[in-house]
Amino acid sequence: MSSLSVPPPQCLLQPYTVPHRYLLGPGPSNVPPRISTAGAQPMLGHLHAETIEIMDHVKSGIQYAFQTQNRVTLAVSGPGHAAMECAIFNSVEAGESVLVGVNGIWGERAAEIAQRIGTRTLSTDYYSTAEIALIKYKPVLFFLTHGESSTGVLHPIDGIGELCHKYDCLFLVDSVAALGGTPIYMDKQDIDILYTGSQKVLNAPPGTAPISFSERACYKIFNRKTKPVSYFLDLSWLANYWGCDGKPVRSYHHTGPVTGLYSLRESLAILAETGLENSWKRHKEVAEYFHNGLEKMGLKLFVEDKKARLPTVTTIVAPPGYEWKEITGYIMKNHNIEISGGLGPSVGMVLRVGLMGCNSTKGHVDMILQALADALKHCHKSRV
Ligand code: PMP
């Protein structure tokens, strides 16, 4: 008689084969074989010499992708949200003020994260009003989303960092959905904290999130009066774990996603081989080709101003008369392609298509245009 009251689950006693699917939603994007092969290499200890060498390569790759010389540059163990919390938890203390530029869900979420740790959080819908708020509320941090994947908006970055510094405020940018697909220059654009995710343009599996901190940000963070609320995301620990603090020994803090770092190294290697500028150019050209194709089909782009369109994630006005879920469901079922509906403020209003990294090709555009045309022909349309 077994002593176990819970038997082995039947579902685990047979193999599970994951299907291939075209991931053309806002992320994750497909992982090319070169990156998944890198991630399938043998496990090593998280502080073995080779792992540390890989972490150093990852650090150099992030410095290249971000265009920064920042010493404190690393990958947080976790998804984009982990980097978001790492940035906010470390750079502000309870009682301080944070200003958040809101152009979709990510600004809303950053505001909530900042509120949860007891900061005074103010939102501004556009950075042109930011100077007034910088003067009036004296925030210590200004958060902005570079590529708003919920609305498909690409936010300009130039000049904002300089403005923040004039008022002794740090400039934090979320480029999870844009980095690698459209220009951003951390040092030249005076960005103090910049983060991205691994699973968008970089085409690595989710679970590692590149982040970098300027000297100005480090000065504030390493001179805090109180400890950050999160032990796991405490930058003093992370900077040591990633060998960014100049100390001769890296101590155990947590067990990093070792194989995830192999994959991230490979995706950064692909970006380095491709060249950032070539990657930006390709994403722009492919996005424009896609946008022209959509307009030719009679579909409308949600972001009217061409300059404000994010090249990595396109938002299409939900076709009138259709149920958007039927369209995304049809495309998944009949074309094996994932696209998605809106998120946060854009729910019910848009369809979202991501063309990121290896998925940013004209071939992928032709495939999704054909799938959309087929869906519009076969999905139920009411009179509008
Ligand atoms: N910021 C932006 C702009 C995003 O698009 C996303 C992911 N959709 C995130 C943050 C959060 O990333 P994750 O899902 O990896 O936590």
TrEMBL record:
**Keywords from the UniProt entry:** Aminotransferase, Pyridoxal phosphate, Transferase
Task: Provide the species name.
Answer: Astyanax mexicanus (Blind cave fish)
* SUPFAM superfamilies (UniProt xref): PLP-dependent transferases
Name this protein carries in UniProt:
Alanine--glyoxylate aminotransferase
Give the enzyme class: transferase
Taken from the UniProt entry, a GO cellular component term is: peroxisome
Q: Does the keyword Transferase apply?
A: yes
Instruction: Write one Gene Ontology MF term.
Output: L-serine-pyruvate transaminase activity
